[in-house]
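Hi F.,

I've been meaning to write this up properly since the lab meeting, where we talked about keeping a consistent format for the predictions we share between groups. The idea is simple: the sequence comes first, exactly as it goes in, then the structure tokens exactly as they come out, then a line or two of notes. No screenshots and no reformatting. I'm using this chain as the first example so we have something concrete to point to.
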Amino acid sequence: MPHDHFKNVQAETSRARRLLIATLFGGMLVISSFIVETDFVEGLLFQNSTIRDSTGALQNPYSSLIAFVGALLLGFPLMWHAVTHLLAGEMHMDELVALAIGAAIALGEYQEAGVIAFFMIISNLIETRTALGARQAIESLLKLTPQKANRIGPDGAETEVSAKDLRPGDVIRVRPGDNVPADGIVVTGQSTVNQATITGESLPVDKSVDDEVFSGTSNLTGAMDVRVTKAGADTTLGRVQNLIIEAERTKIPLMRLIDRYAGWYTPTICMLAAVVWFFSEDKTDGIHKAITMLIIACPCALILATPTAMVAALSCAARLGVLIKNVIHLEAARNVTAVVLDKTGTLTTGELSVTQLKPARGVDGADLLGAAAAAEQMSRHPVAQAVVSVARQARLVFDKPSHFEEVAGRGVVARVGEDDIMVGRSAWLAERGADMSILKDPEYAESEGVSMLYVTRNHQCLGWVGLEDRTRPEAREAIDQLRTLGVRNLAMVTGDKASVARRVAAEMGCSEVHAEVLPAQKLRLVEDMKRRGHRVLVVGDGVNDAPALAAGDLSVAMGAAGSDVAINSASIALMNNDLSRLPFLLRLSRSTTRVIWQNLIFGVLFVIVGQALTIAGIITAIAGAMLHTVSTAIVIFNSARLVRFGEEHISEDPNVAWEIVPRIAPAVVSPAPA
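Output, unedited:
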């Protein structure tokens, strides 16, 4: 599919170039027809000629001929386009211009027909260039990924191969100045990588062994060997590219509204023009007014009002690492009245650290931590990763489990050697038959504000592991901004215990807090808010929160770079973990809507006022064509203001290479030709 898309882009670019050349040549002919009519040129051409009219004035047979050829050259593409659509049974707005040009040529007004066609084609070329510029943005995604890669063989030899031939498990070498050819994990070396094209982060990120790198990012300082995890279309960049191509096909309701009324708009304008001509005392003047009415009525400004604003808004969002998968979601963000936020990984950093160990009597602390790490090592949950990390830092040795089962929101069960180990909540462990009599001792009671994991081996409790998570520095400010934007219902949900949830909710200023909530309960909470009339935005990490994300009116996945689940389950993906993107998203949606309505109102007023001035005889056909081009440019430039929306989030550092990012999102929407 992407290759077909790029072939279409190349074909359209080629057609636009040919049309531009023909337009310039035709325009030169029309201008020449005016020059030939000047007294100086007429005197040179006809001073010795006997070609005179009845009054004795010199006649100029060349001016009309040159203007006629120029008018045909300029008018033919427009008229042919209109005829082909009519023969296909489709009604567009180009028929109005074709009728105006045809009428002018039939009346012998070749210069007028040529000038009209010239300005209308210039207007269409502006639209086409806007669309092609958006579509070519997808091609820039491919250019981010190098065509070649340096693959390391089993013998350590380095071989240059095509990037498309890379497979998961291959080891590649990425030198300073190279773009990373595939997603992978650093196995040796360390460097600084510019990830702006994927995450929108303005500052480069340090990478070392076991860190993840993404296809299309730029390696800046050191050499790294990277084990490929995803290549080609499976990479983060490849998935973004496919999402953009899919989103290009979508239309928001305002865009569909214009398409719906296109079928009756053209006949209505033709009828009005015919009425003006019929009731004109001077039929020649009446036909010129009718021609001008057809030109003014061609609603390019209306047609471009929504797509150009969406192009600019999506470009702005992508620059900040906000991937909007469907333009409908951008429009819907302005109506959000409630936000449901997951705690771990959303309001908090998700980087838990083990702060306490409480082994049961007769149990060594290292034994407790080792058993927990052995069971948790197969889980990707932040809690599990924190336990495994501290165990490795303590240089504990633990075997891999022969059997592993993870129960979402509850805990894990693993078979390690001859032992059955369970790690999770005390109530869940008791349900599974574990002896939790240790809880009767106040010394082993749950600690306030600490997340606790109880560990059992062969149904005997070994003690508990306490973990703490830090809140994100920007989270409170983001929530305050959401409240300022009118979002009053801010609910935090977590599977963590109530004491931890209350502490975080108090720090964040949330209006509701729901603790010890399972994924199914999160889903019911979202559905309950919707039944109460709220437009619900759900924010999570896209893993445990997938059901709730799917249920929200709008869903945002945090830190989606490299996460298949996050990109697929949410309607909007934040490629980084900056919560300030949430109020930015709402403000962008509202600003985009305002710009769209400004464009639409301007387009409607242009048509109405233009028709009135035409009937009053103030605007001529040539002036109408010029004003039409100006109105198209006004709409495009008004929409372009959105590209720089939210610049306060962008680093002022001129060395930060994030400029490529604005070329990603414009491909989501391509303006329809007028």
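Notes:
The first helix runs from residue 2 to 36.
The longest strand covers residues 460-468.

If this format works for you, I'll send the rest the same way.

G.
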